[in-house]
């Protein structure tokens, strides 16, 4: 079993995330609220006015004019590609922590797109 290291004043040393379950649930809740707000704003303002802000979703708006794929699909494809690149060239821990966050926005965009396409 691993023994935790402590500094002279008793604080833990190392990058271990020792957040409690309540704190993790709060992070997830606020993150999900942020994704929904960001996706709603993105779909309500940027997509109809064709404003390509510097991000993957902005590039997806531009590519949407040339490819027969939706903005949500293009955003998901580019995010998955960049996650694979991050997994190999950056730390694996970074890719694991970023996987949910980077794929939540395209899912929210897809939810907003679906009722309008029917």
Task: Characterise the protein shown here.
By secondary structure, the chain is mainly alpha-helical. The chain is 70% helix and 0% strand. It has helices at residues 21-49, 56-64, 71-89, 92-117. Helix 1 crosses helix 4, helix 2 crosses helix 3 and helix 3 (71-89) packs antiparallel against helix 4. The protein is globular. The mean pLDDT is 76.
Number of helices: 4
Q: Uncertain segments of ≥5 residues (pLDDT<50)? A: none
- The chain-level structural class is mainly alpha
> What fraction of residues sit in β-strands?
under 5%
Helical fraction equals over 70%
* N-to-C series of helices and strands: HHHH
Distance between the termini: 56 Å
Which helices and strands, and how do they pair?
Elements (H helix, E strand, L loop, with lengths): L20 H29 L6 H9 L6 H19 L2 H26 L1
Compact summary:
The chain has 118 residues and is mainly alpha-helical.
Descriptive key words:
mainly alpha, 118 residues, 70% helix
